Amino acid sequence: MLDTIVKFLFSVIRVSTPLVFGAVAACVTRKAGLLNLAIESMMLASALTGVLVSGATQSLLLGMLAGFAAAIAITMIISYSAFVLKCDLYLVSIAMNTALVGGTVFVMYLFTQQKANTAGAIPSLFVGSMELPLIKNIPLLGGILSGHNVLTYVAFLMVFLVWFLLYKTKIGLRIRSVGENPQAAESVGISPRRIYFLSFGMSGFIAALGGMYMSMGYLTWFARDMIAGRGMISMSAMNIAVGEPVSATLAAMMFGTADALSNYMQLGKFPSELISMFPYVCTVAILVLMAVIRTVKATAERNKI
């Protein structure tokens, strides 16, 4: 029984990793007063590019650099369209998500002549796992926390780094000031447009790690639409936490738990359609619950007044 629980908790951390990256990426733009609805496309672009370049060059470093470049290129296209050409940010982001679902398949077909995945067609490199020196020898805890992919540990380190950036640095103060009142920030010499570009670029960098984890850590190949809505679930985690990195991580872990449960449901005699919809039903249920709690709190505060 204990062994099953340890394996399940290990699985929760494993499947939560891309959600943590996505949620933290969304927190950066939220603090700048924006919603990054294009996390899905950033993760897709980096996942495919990392596999293609690492396979072609047989260099993990070049593959990951290319993955970062692909995601940041997406952010720059969206930022230029929204903040320079004055297009609607959210429509541009949704269009980018839709375009990349088909675009990644098209690019994959050009390089591999395959439309399902790159397995067997490209010898992609991948990021390995890591045993934690002291923790691995601790009963139960070692089985849960040790032996994960290196990018899993990077994800939780990123939570601290983003929190530190937002609350303990000058640039973080500027991001938050623009998010709270762009006109006031501009009056003291801070360029909101520059902050918007910067926050989207940082968000793309973090989201790229989530995409490359999916194709070069969780799996070792790229598959058609492999992000499978994780970008939107990450947005939900960020919204629940109102843009706070630590709280967003906890919310992402809740969704990761639902995802892990759906994986374990495959061992039972559950319909495949039910298993596929389970994480998303949990997402909607949690969002509804949080909305009800906030409404109740707001009503209670008004009654006090």
Automatic annotation (TrEMBL):
The keyword Cell membrane applies. CDD domains: TM_PBP1_transp_TpRbsC_like. It comes from the Bacteria. It is a multi-pass membrane protein. One of its GO terms (molecular function) is transmembrane transporter activity. The chain crosses the membrane at residues 6-27, 34-54, 60-82, 89-111, 150-167, 195-216, 277-296. Keywords: Cell membrane, Membrane, Transmembrane, Transmembrane helix. It is found in: Cell membrane. InterPro entries: ABC_transp_permease. The keyword Ribosomal protein does not apply. One of its GO terms (cellular component) is plasma membrane. This is ABC transporter permease.
